[in-house]
Amino acid sequence: MSDASASPPAFWAARAWVGDGIVDRVRVTAAPDGTITSVVTGVDAATDDIRLSGVVYPGAVNAHSHAFHRLLRGRTHDGGGSFWTWRELMYREAGRLEPESYERVATAVYAEMVASGFTSVAEFHYAHHRPDGARYAEPHAMERALARAAVAAGIRLTLLDTCYLAGGFGVELSPEQARFGDGSVGSWLERSSRLRESMADEFDPRFVTVAAALHSVRAVPVAALSVVASELDPTIPLHMHVSEQPAENEDCVRATGLTPVGLLQRAGLLSPRFSAVHATHLSDDDVELLGASGTTVVMCPTTEADLGDGIGPARALRDAGAVIALGTDQHAVVDPLLETRALEHGERLGSGRRGRFSPGELMQAMTSGGSASVGRQTGSLAAGQPLDLIEVDPRSARTAGSDPGQLMLTGTASDVATVVVAGRVVARDGRHATLGDTGSLLQRAMDEMS
Fold first, then answer.
1. pLDDT tens-digit profile of 232-260?
2. Which domains does the chain have, with CATH numbers?
3. Is there a catalytic annotation at residue 78?
């Protein structure tokens, strides 16, 4: 990553989102480690400042990613189908991954994220072992590949080491799922603990950390949930796919008498460190439980639309006390502005009303709402925060005439002019500063998978 011994340049923005809205003439300075030391408004630029003439927002947080799913974009739409038929294609791609190829693919995907405006990502990772389930000689080969990819792309990575033990309630893992499993929850806890220690020794924790995930109530036996609640370090962020599909809810109620959210509450897993991904099909009681526990709900609107999952109750969850964050999941779209807009549009389509979320609430969902999910403070321009920011062009064909505080409702990743991570420029005008054109990078990675 960047040289931490030299102070990053200071940045001056004509307009920037600071606190609760847009302010003019903002100068931001940072310490050598990329932490903001001062944010001063209403001032002119100093001679050596990097000047940003557009509108500056905090860096976007991608709170849910499966990097290899990017291999499926634009290749799953023939013949209709459902989430479950899409999943069969996903298993096929998962079975082709090896550490070297996954590193190339993930590097390209993370570079695409960076160029679009994401500065942090939570990677929900479960392809741990060889396709047949055998262990690699280097036990963390796949995880290290993802970490190296993130470092090369210049994005902050929270690697969510995922527990995946079953193919359904009372169902063994299928051959396609063999590489995901660790045999038991105890084995997963041990491997995950060793992984955290290993990664901490090898990678700068400002840019790579290891957290945890449970794949879903279908994939983690009921008895294992309470083991995780009691034995996983409570300071470690914990994610889980929750109620993405009605069939998941039906299976859970049939097996346990509870909804997935109710089951997680009984196991003691709901808390501010917990991120429920999707949470699309919830009862009123589920919404209240998630809100009362301060859980983060990571919604992935473009994926949920692409897969036909449905529209989750985002406004109701926010009103109940849940924190809303956003993720790109299967990367049908990698664009923080479009993802944010899709959150609002889903609410409008579901309710028949406009303005369901204020611009400030949308900005929080795009940025600081993901802080608990990635396990670090991020997503705001303030002293003590990481100097991660994006500059959006307010004069494009899409954004011209827009209120500077509402560009998330008009702009796209094509309007992201500059991306800064830890005080260093990592992308300009859709091109990665060190890796170049992200489309070419993605195509080469995919060609090499053939």
1. 999 999 999 999 999 999 999 999 999 99
2. 11-57+382-437 (2.30.40.10), 60-374 (3.20.20.140)
3. no
